Amino acid sequence: MQALSFRRQMFLLLAERMNQERSIQALYHILTGKKSSQTIQDIKWYNVTYFFRMFPYWKETEFENDTNDLQYHRYIASHNNRVLITEQGRSQNDNFRTSYSWPPIYNGWLYGKSAAVFWKRTALFVQCLSQTLAGNRRFLPVFEDISVQHWLKKNWPKTIEEKQQTASVLFDELRELLGELDERDAFLIMNRLTGYHLTGQTWTQLSTRLQMSEDECHFRFLGSVHFLLEHADRSAVLRRAASGLEVWDVLTETTKKTLHYMNEGWGMERIARVRNLKRSTIEDHVVEIASEQTGFPIGDYVAKEDQNLILHHASALETKRLKVLKEAAQPKELDYFSIRLTLAFYGRDNHGQA
């Protein structure tokens, strides 16, 4: 069996989880982190938030080459524009799962964007603290992001004593936190940091030192950053680095506008008219909101008996395909919006791994 690159292996795992019900392009949007209503539905329905934004840099031409190669070597097939995983593909996944050690945390859905700002703040703070305590005031900052530098100035310790105390405490806190990670993951964090007479290593350098692909290095590094972000309250500096980041603010901007009108008591028809959008677009927004809000009033949109009927058939048939569920509910006439909304609402708490 041909050895797969890390990216291709992750695609193959995702393809299996999607239950042969989505297109290759749909999987691409999940892995690169396209924030659309359809992608949001997919990651919730199929419990694949773990894969969201795993490879935001994956170019479409490279993706096509990778998936074509997977088809050529018979790991996947395609039928009616849906990805089918072959027995060889399932066997490959089983072998990978039995030997691979996953990071304790990875959630591109919740932490995809906030983690980048969190890391910039943390890395710049460490660099400036290290250089300042060494007496060096002339150095190039690792990040020139104005908002990050503004955060640094606001949180910068004033006296030399405060700087020394902060450095000592931060060192102990990071050592304790990173000690809970796999050695390779802790290594990635420490060697991406820059300080006095110490330059953070490139992905190529880290890949060579760890004998791990750059894709996997990047994935495991992000998992470590997510871990630090999730445990930021255990460190004074990390807590400040995480402050103000909208970790849970995952709705798209256009959906937030619809939510505002919904909170005012407006119905979908009125919202669509005022916003000059199609009703189907507003329905997309409502489905997205239902997938995130625990207290969403789904009973206002779908009768309880209809919810139960949809969930029963989805479980019995092991499918999320709307057409199949609609036909299974006959003679009950269910519209696609009711099915989508129910699947979104009851799938909102899924954050499983591969």
UniProtKB/TrEMBL annotation:
<feature type="domain" description="Helicase Helix-turn-helix">
    <location>
        <begin position="254"/>
        <end position="343"/>
    </location>
</feature>
<dbReference type="InterPro" id="IPR008308">
    <property type="entry name" value="YpbB-like"/>
</dbReference>
<dbReference type="Pfam" id="PF14493">
    <property type="entry name" value="HTH_40"/>
</dbReference>
<protein>
    <submittedName>
        <fullName>Helix-turn-helix domain-containing protein</fullName>
    </submittedName>
</protein>
<dbReference type="InterPro" id="IPR029491">
    <property type="entry name" value="Helicase_HTH"/>
</dbReference>
